[in-house]
Amino acid sequence: MPNYPVIDRIEITRYLFPWHDVGDDLNFAVGPFYEKGSERTRRLLGIKIFTDEGVTGEFMSSAPGTYEQMQAVAPLLIGANALEREKFYNVAKTHLRKNDRMGIGPLDITLWDLAGKYHNAPIYQLLGGHRTKLPCYASTYHGDRTPGGLNSPEAFADFAEQCLEMGYKGFKLHTWADGNIDREIATIKAVGDRVGGKMALMSDPCCVFDTYGDALRVGRACDDAGFFWYEDPMRDGGVSFHAHKQLRAALRTPLLQGEHVHMVEAHTDMAIAEATDFFRGDAEYDGGITGLMKIAHAAEGMGMDLELHTGGPAHRHAMAAIRNSNFYELGLVHPKLAGSDLAVYANDYDGDQLDAVDSDGNVSVPEGPGLGVVYDYEKIGVNAVSKIVIDAESSRDEGV
Q: What is the pLDDT of residue 25?
């Protein structure tokens, strides 16, 4: 018998959750905004990896477009040593070379949860991490289309001031993405006038500006307001290194890029091309915690910082072990909404709600084994819509 846990079964369950008072605008491909009375749904994937020793890894993933990719590479894990994450990372990269490889991340994070439970230690300790309090910035919902929330430059400034009073160290704008550049600039100015110099400020247009000229105008407004970074402004999605090298050279505000390029090689090429000032990484997008730590170390070797995209327990553990990272992204948050985090936890993990920060603007790293979270499957089970089971016999839909 091997002296390590052997994977014998994987389950991937699809969940569809209701999301109240939230709208979207597909004309601009932007994220959620407050709209009282509206109803949206949100998809999550629940992953469980079982072993012959009874240790199970668990993770709830919100990464888009990973379901089919995970089904393609999960069979590689059946019969494998559950602790050999590096081997899976490399073999899965080859299998998914014709895809964006985002299917690796959720499975890798689940393997890290399993390893933490096997060793009875939180992931951040397995990574050698030491800081358990992480400074946060408030990352807003997108600009509202109706009165009562974040529907004007002044409303964003009011909310920034509220977050400052709560202890937040920074504040990031997600605005309307509707081509109204004058309003975009007015919002940056309003927030800068209200809280500039008191907290770090960021702007994330989410890749919506059609022209270099628009991106430049907004970037110069960030310069005038003393913003900490300017993130993913251009319609290309951040993949044109030349365009961003030109934009970076024209602005004083540092660029933050990398959410839409994946894995360590592309991030390193981006930095060498001088297309960014900060690295951007996401464990779900970039090969899991295994891949994210490679990106962190590549950035460190170049004297650059890595900022993590979105929150969640995996990023809290990773950030605890990354020296060159400034802020934990807490969001999405809104003065009239509890937050974008869904109530999936059964333990005291605080999620990423607006009030998750302490008076110093920090969140804590979970201390339990693995990810340190417990999922409330009894509660969330009513939202399950399908389940794929992968074992030595087959991959099959067992229903829910």
A: 79
* pLDDT tens digits along 148-161: 899 999 999 999 99
Q: DSSP letter at 78?
A: T
pLDDT of residue 302: 98
Residue 31's identity, in one-letter code, is: G
Query: Among 204, 213, 317, which residue's Cα sits nearest to residue 253?
Result: 204
- If residue 377 lies in a helix (H) or strand (E), which one and from where to where? helix 377-380
Residue with tokens 């297309």: 275
Mean pLDDT estimate for the chain: 95
Pick the CATH number of 7-121+371-397 from 3.30.70.580, 3.30.70.1890, 3.50.50.60, 3.30.390.10: 3.30.390.10
- The pTM is what? 0.97
Q: Report CA dihedral (363, 366, 371, 374) to the nearest 10 degrees.
A: -110
Domains 7-121+371-397 and 125-364 share a fold: no
Say yes or no to pLDDT of 341 above 60.
no
Q: How far apart are the C-alpha atoms of 350 and 140, rounded to whole Å?
A: 18
Structure tokens at 197: 């110099």
Residue 184: other Cβ atoms inside 10 A: 26
What does the DSSP assignment read for 101-159?
A: -TTHHHHHHHHHHHHHHHHTSBHHHHTT----EEEEEEEEPPPPSSTTSS-SHHHHHHH
What residue ranges do the domains of the chain occupy?
A: 7-121+371-397, 125-364
CATH topology of domain 125-364: TIM Barrel (3.20.20)
Which of 281, 237, 288, 286 lies closest to 262 in space, CA to CA? 286
